[in-house]
Design a protein that fits this description.
Blueprint lengths: L5 E8 L2 E6 L2 E5 L4 H9 L6 E4 L6 H6 L6 E4 H10 L5 H4 L4 H6 L5 H8 L7 H5 L7 H13 L3 H27 L1 E2 L2 H12 L10 H14 L9 H10 L9 H4 L7 H17 L1 H7 E2 L2 E2 L2 E3 L9 E3 L20 E8 L2 H10 L2 H7 L4 H7 L6 H13 L4 H13 L1 H15 L30 H41 L10 E5 L3 E7 L3 H20 L8 E6 L9
Parallel strand pairs: 1-4, 4-5
Antiparallel strand pairs: 1-2, 2-3, 6-8, 7-8, 9-10, 11-13, 11-14, 12-13
This protein binds a DNA duplex through helix 12, helix 14, strand 10, helix 19 and helix 20.
Length: 559
DNA sequence: CTGACTTGCGCC
DNA sequence: AAAGGGCGCAAGTCAG
């Protein structure tokens, strides 16, 4: 049985949903929606759901146990098309363009925090401001703009838009399922690092002792180590004049206060960022549920909101523990960005260096540099725009052996310095620069400040083409993986099958029944291989993964 | 008091 | 003389 190919959903009022099923309008109540979606999803391959914004539709469907296979997220598509260099903005424009520009995703964490003091918001209050947006009109304008893009470029953009929309589904499913988090393990780790949980408002015993030692060593009984100005004053009184108070700077100093200061800083950060308060605020019923925001970063990387989900410190990763009878599969791509650089620049030599699994070692073996750490410095320096120090010198060696890759970066940097837009492999455009330097011709003498900003923007566009292209490879990877994981599960909702629980730029965590862990490992590898083929076709490049299966993130993370 | 900015550091 | 990209978050600082 084949079902409809495309269904557009539009909210019309408090309990009024319009579904346009292959062009035919059907009116629904909000309460009928989940069953309606489930019924069509069960026909054939399922339709492509077209809606204004996944965060406004999918969470309630997931809560009702309904998963969809494909969607088109008009908000995300709009944002990509608005900046894509290949798109004719006149074709894309509608009367509502500015409103679509401003449409922001609904945040589950913000909604929860906001309703803590006030009453529960009605569901419709969250939707009311988008009933005015005409999804059908926007969809038509987007498709027209896409149709006007030249052939190969259009195909790539379509890949990007599909990956972006699939990412929106993954993001909602990850928040729905949550990252398994053992509060008891977390508390034991905090006790080990910081001492027993202190009474409210008091510092943990370990921090208090370290602070006392630092104050004693500096003869500054009221020192606030969190205040750079205060700390600099105290250091100056004992004859030390560091340029700043960063840890790396302080560690160069020869003074008794240094050790307790650095230890205090490290642990007070743990306490402030991921301490007992964090645990109470963010972990409920054994799950941590931040908001995941596909395309939340200009480069196309995902952002996250709520508890700093993308920087879970390594010491706390043992608290991420699979449920009883389940496992975590942790997979990360080795040296994703330089591999992507090889592909987007068409540098077959760099691809060959990557073929052995360790790209940096391959660079050494090619004779470009002498040691692996030099290779890493050179590659990272080229991608980030290092011009001085050992990084800068190493880049010159790299350029001799891999001219195409390095030239690709230099061209991106030069374009940025001219104020031009650069583009990722699939066609995501960089933002236009702002600032006084953009008003001047490059050959006119500029102020020091303008020159600095111009070079800084060049470093940004240099990195944009790599970071952004890597982000779209990774987005394709998880989109393909999501499909494979769904097929592995026999039945049941997303959270009862193998499912993604975290995505960290080039790393994924999958929560899976133990019996399926090996299948998940194969799926993760297969998806990476298919992503490479999907984006780069015949270009001979591998994406080796480090994959581990374990009970906790720490067990499964190379340990 | 709030809000904007700075400093510093966790992650990739 | 120094010169490295992207984030989120907490705490301090400072202006209004």
């Amino acid at each position: 049985m084949t079902g409809p190919r495309e269904v557009l959903l539009q909210r019309r009022g408090p309990d009024e949903v319009l579904a346009v099923v292959d062009g035919e309008a059907v009116a629904l109540g909000e309460g009928e929606l989940a069953a309606f979606v489930a019924r069509l999803e069960a026909t054939g391959a399922g339709p492509r759901w077209v809606w204004d914004d996944t965060t406004r539709w999918y969470p309630s469907l997931l809560a009702a146990g309904v998963r969809v296979r494909r969607c088109l997220d008009l908000r995300l598509v709009h944002r990509v098309l608005r900046r894509a260099p290949g798109v004719d903005q006149d074709v894309l424009a509608t009367a509502a363009t500015a409103a679509w520009d401003e449409l922001a995703p609904l945040s589950a964490t913000a909604a929860t925090a906001g309703s803590a003091g006030g009453g529960a918001e009605g569901l419709f209050d969250l939707h009311v401001h988008v009933t005015a947006l005409d999804a059908a009109a926007e969809h038509a304008a987007q498709q027209a703009a896409l149709a006007a893009v030249a052939g190969e470029q259009r195909g790539r953009l379509q890949l990007l838009l599909a990956a972006e929309s699939a990412g929106a589904l993954v993001a909602a499913e990850m928040t729905h399922a949550g990252l398994p988090w053992r509060a008891d393990v977390h508390e034991a780790l905090l006790a080990r690092e910081l001492g027993p949980r202190p009474p409210a408002g008091e510092p943990p015993a370990v921090l208090a002792a370290l602070l006392a030692r630092a104050r004693e060593a500096l003869g500054a009984p009221s020192l606030n180590p969190d205040s750079p100005a205060d700390l600099l004053r105290a250091l100056r009184r004992v004859g030390l004049v560091p340029p700043d108070t960063r840890s790396g700077t302080l560690s160069q100093l020869d003074h008794l206060a240094v050790v307790p200061l650095l230890e205090h800083r490290k642990l007070s950060r743990l306490h402030a960022a991921n301490g007992w308060r964090w645990l109470r605020e963010w972990v409920h019923d054994g799950r941590y549920r931040p908001d995941h925001l596909p395309g939340g970063v200009v480069s196309g990387r995902w952002a996250a909101q709520g508890g700093g989900a993308l920087s879970v410190p390594a010491v706390l990763r043992p608290a991420v523990v699979a449920d009883e009878g389940w496992r975590l599969v942790v997979a990360d791509v080795a040296q994703l960005e330089p591999r992507v650089l090889a592909a987007v620049s068409g540098d077959a030599d760099l691809a060959r260096a990557a073929a052995g699994g360790d790209l940096y070692q391959g660079v050494v073996d090619s004779g470009a540099v002498a040691t692996r750490s030099d290779a890493k410095l050179a590659v990272l320096g080229a991608m980030y725009g290092a011009t001085a120090g050992s990084g800068g010198r190493m880049v010159e060696h790299l350029a001799r052996r891999y001219p195409r890759a390095v030239e690709h970066l230099e061209l991106a940097a030069a374009a940025g310095e001219r104020g031009e837009v650069v583009s990722t492999w699939l066609g995501r455009g960089s933002p236009r620069p702002r600032g006084s330097w953009t008003q001047q011709a490059p050959d006119v003498p500029a102020s020091e400040a303008d020159l600095r900003e111009r070079r800084s923007w060049g470093r940004f566009t240099r990195n944009f083409v790599v970071q952004g292209s890597a982000a779209e490879w990774a987005a394709s990877w998880i989109a393909l993986l999501r499909e494979e994981l769904w097929r592995l599960g026999a039945d049941g909702p997303v959270e009862q099958r193998p499912h993604l629980v975290l995505f960290l730029h080039d790393e994924v965590l999958v929560h899976t029944p133990a019996a399926l862990a090996d299948d998940v490992v194969a799926a993760v590898r297969g998806a990476a291989e298919r992503a490479g083929w999907l984006l780069y076709g015949e270009f001979p490049l591998t994406f080796p993964l480090d994959v581990h299966v374990g009970r906790s993130w720490a067990d499964a993370d190379g340990g």
